[in-house]
Amino acid sequence: MIIETLYTHFLKCTTVCTDTRKIEKDCLFFALRGDKFNGNKFAGQALESGAKYCVVDEKEYAVDARYILVEDVLDTLQHLATYHRAQLKIPILALTGSNGKTTTKELIHAVLSKKYTTTATQGNLNNHIGVPLTLLQMNERTEIGIVEMGANHPKEIELLCSIALPDYGLITNFGKAHLEGFGSLDGVIKAKSELYDYLTKHQKIIFVNDNDPIQVKQTLNSPKVFKFGMLTSTGATLELIKSQPYVTLNYNGTEVKSQLAGTYNFNNIAVAIAVGSYFEVNHEAIINAIEQYTPTSNRSQILHKKSNTVIMDAYNANPTSMLAALENFKQLLQENKMVFLGDMFELGQTAESEHQGIVDYLETHPLGQAYLIGKNFYKTEVNTDAILKFETFEDLKAYLRRTKIENAFLLIKGSRGMALERILEIL
Fold first, then answer.
1. Do 413 and 325 meet the contact criterion of CB atoms below 8 Å apart?
2. Residue 124: what pLDDT?
3. What residues form the annotated binding site?
4. What is the pTM of this model?
C-alpha cells in the first residue's frame, strides 16, 4: 500500500496504537514484531477492542478490509510518521544527549507551552518506535513539536533525524553512557553528533551551550548556531547562584528558583530558557514555567520519608551522571548523609573499571555511609567500613529491615533496571 493511501486511513482514526492493552476506540493499530512477540497475532484482538484498522505484514492475518497489508509494519510506521510530519509544516525541535534528556524536554515543553500549543515526546518514548509515535500524536493544533531522541548504537540518531526531519536541535551533554554500544566516550560524541551533522547539512539551527567545549567544537562548522550560557553575550545569559538543595539561577538579571535538585540541572534549565528566549516567549512566562515545573518519575526529586529526606534520582545512571550526582551531594550542607548506589548498565567491557572508579571516588570523598547494590558493585574492591556492598536488592532489603535509618539525608541513584525506588518502601 502506498503511503498516501495509508494516510487517508490514518486521518479517519483517533490515534495510533501498538499495544492491545492500550487500545483506544477507532485507533490505527500497528502490529509490530519483536524478538519475543508477533503483533500480527493480536490484530484481531485489537479490532475487537475498538481499533478501526490494523496494519499487518503477514498475509494470513489480513482477512478483510479492516486489515491493511504492508511489507514491513515498523518501516511503514516510520514512513507514515515522516509523511505526516511533512503535512503539518510545523517547526520540530529535536534533542538528545547522555544525561538529562527527558528533564530538559519537559522543561522546554513547559516553557514553550506558555506561548504555543506544543506536542512533546511522552515519557521516554525516544527510539525508532517512540519517535514515530510522537510525530503521529501531533495534529493541526500543534504549533511546535518537541522530539526526544535516544540511542545506544551508532547511526540511530541519524535514522531518527531522517524520520523527524528536525528544524532545530540540541545536545544536552556528552557522557559515559551506553559504552557497550558506543565503545568509548569518543564513540558517544560521534554518535550523538549525528544530530549536529543533520542540522548542519540542512542549514538548520543548533542551540549550543558555550560553557561546554565539546558542543562548541562539534558545531564550529555549523552555519546557524544560537549560543547561550555564562560566557555568551548573545542569547540568554545565565549564572548559577546556588543549589542548596534546589537550583537557583540568575537569568538576565532576574533570580529564578527552580524545584530541581542538583547542580547538574542548571544546564538543563539553561537549555529551556535559551529555547524559550529564541522563540520569543515572554521573560516572565519563562520564569514562571521554570519555577512551576515539578520533577516526577524519580528524576532529581526531593522526597520526605518519615524523618528522612531523600534525593531520588533513580530513573537511570551512567558514570558521568553518577559522579555529577555525588559531586552535588558532597556540596550539600547537611548532616547524617548517606548514599545508595545501584549498578550502572550497558557499560560493556568498561563496567568493572567504571564501577571501581565510583568506589574510588567515595573513598577519597567520604559522603557518610555508602550502600552499593548490584553484581558489578559487589565485585569492586573496598577499603573502608563506610562502604557496604550488597550483591542483590534482597540482600540490601534484609539489612535495612534490621537497621534503623532516621533523620538522614539520602541520595538514591542507579540504573533503571535496579529499581532503587523500592528503598522508599523499606524506609
1. yes
2. 78
3. 97-103
4. 0.89
